[in-house]
Amino acid sequence: PTRRSSDLDEETEQLVVALRKLSFRYREVIVLYYYEEYGTGEIAKMLHTSVNTVKSRLRRGREKLAAIMKN
Length: 71
Prior knowledge:
This protein is mainly α.
């Protein structure tokens, strides 16, 4: 079945609300990675941290985001 535009708008709104509930450290890397389409190496340079830290924050951020969306 195809999704209606209103369904997508509602999902987008739910995602935005959930993102706002994340702490800045997780929201920051998720936005840079998924919305701004930077790679983990680029994000690490921007944030003056290691690639592994960026990957950890992405993983934890996705987990926290999923938990928020579930509730």
